Structure formats: C-alpha cells, structure tokens
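Quick start: what a row looks like.
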Amino acid sequence: MIKKFRRSKLSSAVALSIATATFPVASVAQQSAEQASNGQELEEVVVKGIRRALKRGQDVKRSAGGVVDSISAEGIGKFPDNNLAESLQRISGVSIDRSGGEGQSITVRGFGPEFNTVLLNGRQLASESDTRGFGFDTIAAEMVAGIDVSKTASASTQSGGVGSTVNIRTLRPFDSSGLKIAGSVKAQHESLSGDSSPSVSGLYSNTFNDDRFGVLVAVSRQERDVQLNWAQTNGWLENVGVPQEQINGGAGFSGNTFTPRNFDLLQSQQERERTNANVVLQFRPNDATEVTLDYLYSDFDVNDNTSSYGHWFTGSNLTDVTLDQNGTATDLRQEVGLATDFHAKSFSRITETDALALNVKWDVNENLTLALDAHTSSANRFEGPSGTGDLLSLVGYANRVRFQSDGAVLPWTSEFQSPSTAVFSGQQELDGVAYQGGVTPAGVSDYLDPSNLRAHVMLRRGWAVEDDVDQLKLDGVWNNDTDQGLIKAKFGVMSSSETKSLTRWDNEGAGIHCTYCGYPDAPAVAGINVQRLDGGSDFLGSVSGSGRTPAVWLSHDGEAQFGAVSAASGLNFDAVIRDNSFTVEEDTTAFYTEFDFSGFVGEMPIFLTAGARYEDTDVTVVGTEASISGLRILDRTEMLAQFGVANPISAKSSYSKLLPSLSAKLEISEQLVARFAASQTLTRPTLRDMAPVTVIGTTRQGGNLTSSSGNPELLPFESDNLDLSFEYYYGDVSYASIGYFRKDVNNFIVSGTEDLTFTLPDGSQLRDPSTGTNPDAPDGADSVAVFTNTLPSNGQAATVDGIEVTLQHEFGDSGFGIIANATFVDTDRDFNPADISQKFAVTGLSDSLNLVGYFERGPFQGRLAYNQRDEFLQSLTQVNGDGVQFVDEYSQWDFSASYDVSDNLTVFLEGINLTEEVVTKRGRFSNHFLLAEDSGRRVSLGLRGSW
C-alpha cells in the first residue's frame, strides 16, 4: 500500500496557483485540486500581501529538490524592498555590498559577487562590470516577480556559481489571463542632501483570442539625488623607508612599520538615474506550442561630483614618528614634500544594457517536451569624451602637517609650525593647529586663504567596458507517468560566447598630468571659482573621533581648472586610449543529462535527482601593451612612468570539466523534510584577470611603486560541495530549518602580490631615480625600481563550512509574524594580521543575522527589518597601499508600511537605514583606518495601484 500525505485545502490551492498562474495580483481565488477532482462546490480562498509572498517562498523551498530560497512579489510592482539586493539579504547565507547607500552586489555563503551566477529568466545577462559580478541596482524592483536562490547545484543549470545560482524572474502575460494594469509613483527624501526625487513605474498586460496571444509592457524610472559624507585613507604602506632616527624619539623600531598613504575628507553629490523597460510577446498557435519573445532594456547612470581635502604622505620624508607595538604610526609629522590638496573629482558610471530572447516550447507528445532558447545581450559602460567621465583636478600648496590616531575610528590631521625657516615656492605658512568648523582665531593665518593655492595634478582617466553574450540552448524533458522509479529525465546542450573588451583612457601616458606638480608660482588659481565648502558641524558626527579635523575646505570647478591650466601651459590635457587595452573572448559548449527518481524508504517518500554537466571552454585574449622604459621625477612626491613602443599581445587557453550533482529529499513526515546534496561546481576567472598586460599604478617617491598584471593561464577554481538540512513545516506560512554546508575549494584563484622588476632593452634594470644621493634627479646610486605587483594565480585550497538556521512564524490569526535567520560560517584559511608575507586568505566570510517583524490585518501592512553582518575580510589588496581591506561590523534598520485605500489603490511609506548607520573599513590592524562613509537615511512616500 502506498501511503500518501494529505494536503490542507489552502496548501493545495496555493500550490495550484503557483503551477498555473504565478502572476502576482492583488487577490486570488483558486479552486483546490481536491475539490476539482471530486466535483465539489468551489471554495474561494483569498491570499494576499505579505502572507501570500511568504507562502509562495515557503512552497518553492519545500517543493525544490535541492536547497532553494525564494522571494516573491506581494503584488504587481510590489517587491518587498526598493532594491533587489536589499531583499536578497533577508535570505540566510546572503550578504550584500552597498554603493551610494543601496545594495549593489551579493555574497552567498562567503563567496563574493563574481562567484554567484546571476540569471535573468534562466539566461546570462551581459554586465557592465569589469568582473563577473552583477549589479542588482541596474534592474528596478518593480519589474520583478520573484528571485530564486539555489544554493545547491543542478546539472540543468548554467555553471559558474560556487556560491549560488540566482535567477531573477520577470513577468509574463500568460502568467495571468486577461487585462492587468499596475503603476506606482513615489517621492524619496534623502536626509543628507535634503532633496526629494521621483520614481514612477507602470505595467500593462493583456491576453487575447482566448489566451492565444499575450502582450506585456513594463516601464520604470527612478531618480535619486544622493549626498555622501566620508573620510578615507587609500592604504597603509609597509616598510617604506621611514628614517630610523625619526622613530620613537630616535630609538628606532626593529619590526615591520606601517604608515598611512594619505588622509582625506570628502563630500560627494551623486545624481542616479535608472530607466528600465520590458516588453514580452507570447503566442500559442496550438495547445502544444508556446512562443515567447522578450526584450529588456536598462539604462543606469551615476554622475558623481566630489570635493575633498587631504594630505599625502611619503615615508622617507616623515619625522617625529611614534609607532605602537604593531609598528603602526600613531603620530607623525611631515614638512618636506607634503601636499595639502583640495580635490575636484567627477566620476561617471554611464551604463546601458539590453537583452533579446526567443523561446519556443513544444510538447511533442504526452511525455516529451522540447524548448529552444536563443538569447543575445550586450552591456556597455561608457567613458566620457576625452576622459571626462573620470576627472581629478588638484589645487593646493606645500605644507607642514601632523597626523595622529588614537582609539577612535577616525584619525585626524593638523597643521603645525616648524622651527625650520625653509620656505619654498607655494609654501603655505600657518600659525596654529586645526581650527574647528573652519573658524580661524583672530591674529592667525587663514589656512583656507585661496591666494596660496597653486595648480597640481590634473588627471583624466577611466575604463570603457563592452560586454556581449550570445547563447543558444536546446532543452528536453521526458516525463514518465509513474508513481515510483524514474519519473523525469532532462537533457540539453548549450553554446555560449562572451566577449568583453576593456579600453583604458588616461592622460598619464602623455606625461602632462603633473605639469605643475611642484607648485610653481604660476599659474595661480585666480579666476577659478574657488569657494568654501562647509561639511557641517555634524560631518560624520556618529563616527568616533569626528570633529578633530576641520570639516571646511576649499572647493573648485574641476573643468574650469583644466581650462585654465591648459591655457597657461599650452597643452591639451585630454585623455587618450592607452596601449594596454584588451579583449577577452570566452566560448563554452555544454551538455547535460539529469534524472528525477521517486520511491519510498519504508513509508517515507524519497525524491532523488542525479545528473552531470560537461563543459568545454576556450579563451582567447588579444590587445596591445607598451612596456615601461623609465621613471622621471616630477616633484618631491611623484614620478612619471615612461613607456616604449606598443606591441600586440595574444594568448589562448582551454579547459574541460565534468560536473556531477546529486540531491535527495526525504519526507520523514507530513511536516518534516530532510535533504542531502553533493555536487562539483566551478567559477571561471574574472575576464579582466586573464589579460596578459601589466598596468602601472602608483609611481611615488620613497619606494611606493605599484602595478597589476593579468594571467591568461588561469583555470577556474573548483569546489566539492556537501549540504545536509532538516525543515519542519508546521503551518501555512510557518516553518523552521537548520542546514549544514561544506565547500572544499581547489584551484582557488586569488590576487596576491609579488616584487616585480623590469629589464630595459639594453639589458639593464629599471631604476628608481628618487632613491639615490640626489632625490631630485637620477644618479649612480639609484636603486633598482621594485614594484609591488598584484597578480592573480591558481593553486590555493580552502575549506568553507557553516550552519544556516531559519524560523518563519505566524502568530495565529493575530496578523503578526516574524522571520529570523542566522548564518555562521568558518574557514581553515583565515587571515593572520601579523604575517605580512601571507598571500592568501578566504575573503567575504562573515556571520550574519536577519530579523523581520510584520503585521498584516485588513487594509494595513507593516514590516520592520533588522540586518546585521559581522566584520569580514573584503580584499587582500588596497587602492594605494600594501595591506588588506576589512569591512567592520554593520547593522541596519529598515521599515515599510502600507494602507489599502481601496481594492485597487494603496498608499505606502518606506524607510531605509533608519538610524543612519555608517560603513567603516580598516586595514591589517584595528587602527589602520581606511574608510567611513555616511549615506544617511532615505524615506519614501507613494501610491500604488493595480487593476
């Protein structure tokens, strides 16, 4: 006798609605499967809002063969959060990285953005990023019906996700019969800028001719005026030649020394604009055939204008240096070669993405279904004309500055008087220390006197990215009409080609960007619109140590300054395409088979899925590279890299891999489910990492020379995965689960550092002209120039394992409920801060916690969410330093509330980062300050309608 579990009427109705009509409408009335089969009178079951979305997510999780978590929209255009990434962070094991105060990319089980395959309706979407990571901020939440996060692998799913496979599902006209119209409008207020910006969306869907033809059109437009207040140190330098007689009162220091590269205060004004459109046509010429044509368009632009004030330090010029027991400078002074600069920066992330797909599904007979899917997608990140998309204009003066830090998060700088009488061109003479709020005491020189300013570094630079993806897939499903044994077989083939081009623009190669680096008397900044920028008395006020460095500085118009310097020098400062641009083409052919079985262990139903995916990949890299030929001193802080003749480069590589997978689901009882999964997965190298070019980064005096290289021989890193979980379903929207996962990763790809020297055509070694007896010119005592080169490589191995626990509970008929989950993750390859020779550690790992409380009763809905992520190692490299980057523990409160004015109209209120938390980062030790970024609070008020 075969034992079958009974479903509740509500469970059957919801399951049927998911299988037949997943279009999210304001309310649904479904016939239960049991009633329909028995010919009973139909019972209307209404499920809506938060509860419906939770039920859908719970049913997806329970019915899946592997470990899958799902988020569904609560209604048309009503995704749980403003941002897709911010919704995903509510899932156990998923954490996010933020940009401009909103979620941009995800980390799953400790594996960062490039290690998670992100699909749109099962297809790879081209990305404007120079990595494999996906920016979730490019797609409006209003366009999405749901997101499924598969944490275990399946042979039928495209490879690439050691962390997970994320599938974003957009709407289809055949998801629901008849006419559907929805729209929303809202205003979003930013607490720091004080501005409010609009957001609108609309959707039209209809089916015709007895549901044989369907049309869906969705559009969304969002604008944001964002202000960011932040402080930064670009990096900490290791052992860069601080004179021993200047350390700890002349006592010196025998260990490793760490000194800051710089310290800046910054304020950014961003204009963010996102336009999305989705058009879907569906056609059923007969009952056996369904044709779907869909097109997605995304235009996401960020225009950032930043004004900042800062100091740049050079190790060999430091005096009166105090080091702590770890060798970290907690107090230092510099009066020679010190640049106090006022920066005007403009940066543009101008992107455009589109995707066109045709899918033909054919039910050949009662058992066999075939689907042909053709897809093409392109993404571009545009560099502004002549390098205007990434501009840096510096004006400033030579100065004497003291840097100090204590137990607070923020260090501080102050000007000081020196007994030295040496004054050189452009020297700013000061009579005191830092002046709070920019108020200068009577009788003291004004440190913001614009007449002292001179031109300094003038940079135009950036990378343009073009990504093209073409895919063709044929999938088949054989359904075997049995209760036990083989119940389904899947098979398929895929051909995929991705071509990504990265084009570098800058004016550094022409050697003109530092025309006035030495602060000569001309050209002065007269005639440029120089103004005082007041960051406010509460600038970074919630960060410990704030208020000790003036939050008032001089700002100027960067483009106007470029015009003035160009006119004074007679030089053209436009950026040009550099010789280390490149294109990577990756062609992959894949075959897979997968089988679903069902049976019983005693009286307990068991479901098995076993399969294998074979993939063959060919990689071709082409481009040009000009080797470095010399270093020329520009001033006391900077040198110019000179280059020889450009030569073409070309490299090829290939690899093949068989990826088996197995998952099992045992229904121990009607409420208790156990899962087991084992698989092999891979993640391919970042395309940029495979380019065999060396890019020169920093060329500063005192031994701060950096570069980066790619490696065309990189292989994908491979992971053996194990999952075991138990799930207890004790209510319609209530369940608890606990799961263990383990990933044994081989061939791990990591960016480490190495010492790199360059051999010139005459056979001699490139030398650093700032290291000899004359720091202002080359001489015979100059040392060989040793660059710290960042290089990706294979060969490392690591184990990552962890536990995920989840509770979703509804408190009876009270309308209240909670969602709580936590992830605890560990690795055998932790970072050791005391070992500066360490080249590898697993990045992205952190414990995380999510708590969501909700209420839904009648026309009112409310949700309060708390998210916390522990400190984690983000990167093994710094922007302009020798160390690593840690992101400190971060937590955030968000809320949303809505009221249904009628069956068709809802008013809603949303709040993001209610307590205005600040993101902070550090380096190797806790006092290696790197970043404090305050994006403020966002509050939205709007109307949503659906018919």
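That is the whole record. Residues 9-47 form one domain. The two ends are 49 Å apart (CA to CA).
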